[in-house]
Write a structure and sequence with these properties.
The protein is an alpha/beta fold. The protein has a single domain, classed as P-loop containing nucleotide triphosphate hydrolases (Rossmann fold, 3-Layer(aba) Sandwich), CATH 3.40.50.300. The chain has 8 helices and 5 strands; from the N terminus they run βαβααβααβααβα. A 5-stranded parallel beta sheet has the order 2-3-1-4-5, with helices on both faces. The chain starts with 5 loop residues before the first strand and ends with a helix. Bound molecules: thymidine-5'-diphosphate.
Length: 201
């Protein structure tokens, strides 16, 4: 899968500041004229739209296996249409959520996280770096609640604690954990330093 740019993934539960850091990194890299593309999952494609619907109206009768298959179909499209083409143009690809989210969130429904990772790794390129953002789940929930009108079935405390536990269990060498208690500026500086080291520029 290589001959390519760099795949840098931002993971963690909502309210940890990962999306803010992902956007800031895009602006920073653009400013210093390093070719960059930023994507997010779920995407805005057809499967991503179906997923966003269950995020607002709830899971209803959808089984956990069906839910998993939607996230995987959405990712297949993202890999084919967005991620691989940008990597092939030697860009730095910043990705707001990827298959570690699937292993953690759908794993927290009782599916096997390792099996979910294996299934994804068959078609999705391995990240060069994955930042897993971490903050106390109670804190994340109150941040989510103050920024949204209602919280979805993906944002309940017990469920998020289980999601967090699975995020904690990943230990691949490209994973770095980011403590969200530091300031936005400090975290950004830390990530810039790491990315410069990673890409060697
Ligand atoms: P999120 O990044 O929070 O999107 P938004 O900022 O638009 O709300 O993603 C939506 C939710 O989808 C989030 O609660 C995590 C969940 N999710 C999964 O359950 N599995 C996955 O594979 C992905 C990518 C996301």
């Amino acid at each position: 899968m290589s001959g390519r740019g760099w795949l840098i993934v931002f993971e963690g539960i909502d309210g940890t500041g990962k999306s803010t850091q992902c956007r800031e990194m895009e602006s920073y890299l653009k400013n210093i004229k390093i070719p960059v593309a930023r994507f997010r999952e779920p995407t805005d494609g057809i499967w991503g739209q179906k997923i966003r619907e269950i995020l607002t109206v709830g899971r209803g009768n959808l089984t956990r296996e069906e839910e998993l298959s939607w996230f995987i179909k959405d990712r297949r499209e993202d890999v084919k249409n967005n991620i691989l083409p940008a990597l092939n143009l030697n860009k730095i690809v910043l990705l707001d959520r990827y298959y570690y989210s699937t292993a953690a969130y759908q794993g927290a429904l009782g599916l096997d996280p390792k099996e979910i990772l294996r299934e994804n790794e068959k078609f999705a390129p391995t990240p060069d770096r994955t930042y897993i953002f971490k903050a106390p789940t109670e804190e994340c929930l109150s941040r989510i609640k103050s920024s949204r009108e209602s919280n979805s079935s993906f944002e309940k405390l017990d469920y998020l604690n289980q999601v967090q536990k699975i995020f904690n269990s990943f230990n691949e060498s490209h994973i770095k954990r980011i403590r969200s208690s530091e300031t936005i500026e400090d975290i950004h500086a830390q990530l810039c330093e790491d990315i410069h080291q990673l890409i060697g520029v």
